[in-house]
């Protein structure tokens, strides 16, 4: 399989993942009656679109991303909220602005938050899409709409890992011997007795299954390796099964570079994991991804350092889409007759599962404009309205998330800088599988 094929497969997988993520927002939003004007796969010029029940569905030229436009994301400003400022920086509420003369009003500029509110209101007024504004949904419906996208990525991650581990499986060493080396060097014959392979000298053959070593049952190849390591140069009794018959031989390991060696390699067999193993893999992927996200600033800084110094990046280093695509290419083009098509497919699926888990975790960061920020806003609204009911006071209404627009701009800036740094690093100093 070619390097390019791996890149194409990963790009297609990413496009599908993002498209389904946005579908996770679209479906509950439509179900709850929100006004969804657009569902687009990609960015840039529109290549194709159709309008169905007030929503425009389309594909754009740059197929790296996608978006759903839900109208009315920001509510009107409450009375007393600062919405304008003049050239001197003086701030005005709507009532204060209304009291100014025409020339003074002309000199006013809306705040960043007010600009977002006015844009949202303009979209509502101009669109003919049926339904209600997002701000008019119940708080729990808002949370479901915003949580829908990340949940889709979580489901995709579980499916990819499940198929890779439980469907395709992976090559696992067994206790059956694949090779018994006649010599502890690369030679096929040993002119010197001290170089003779201990297992070969003991009469072991390829196809023998190791049942016990030094009196300890060997259920896995790790058990065999542990017993060899523990035996040192001590002679051990080894029970094997050959052609259905159990035999006992004695093996005396030899020290090579200080480690006991007997000169055997295991036979590989494809293992398909069950529900428990898949669950464990999903859990490990989640917590591993969460740990990376928590350390994201340090990870990016480390990438910058490696980019500047030329130091080889760690295989666990955070990557951009470019880096993930390069790794995919290495998976499909890696040499080796022992690497089967199934092994490559399982590796690609595992990588796609990890990528979707990253999308799930990253999008739940509680900062706007990420989904997690909107979810926190919805939960805060529910708490605030519930507390108002308990106290018997008037309903405070939807949360004015437009106030967070300065933070949104900062987060966007950081995301852009991080993306540029990671893309540059993945081009100049990429991570290799090794």
TrEMBL record:
GO biological process, one term: proteolysis
Transmembrane segments: 57-74, 151-170, 357-383, 404-425
Subcellular localization: Membrane
Stored Pfam families: Peptidase_M50
Keywords: Hydrolase, Membrane, Metalloprotease, Protease, Transmembrane, Transmembrane helix, Zinc
InterPro entries, per the entry: PDZ_sf, Pept_M50_Zn, Peptidase_M50
Organism: Nanchangia anserum
Topological relation to the membrane, as annotated: Multi-pass membrane protein
Statement: the UniProt record of this protein carries the keyword Protease: yes
Transmembrane as UniProt keyword: yes
Cofactor(s) the protein requires to work: Zn(2+)
Family: Belongs to the peptidase M50B family.
Protein name: Site-2 protease family protein
The Peptidase M50 domain, residue ranges: 10-386
Single GO term (MF): metalloendopeptidase activity
Gene3D superfamilies named among the record's database cross-references: 2.30.42.10
GO cellular component: membrane
CDD domains from the UniProt entry: cpPDZ_EcRseP-like, S2P-M50, S2P-M50_PDZ_RseP-like
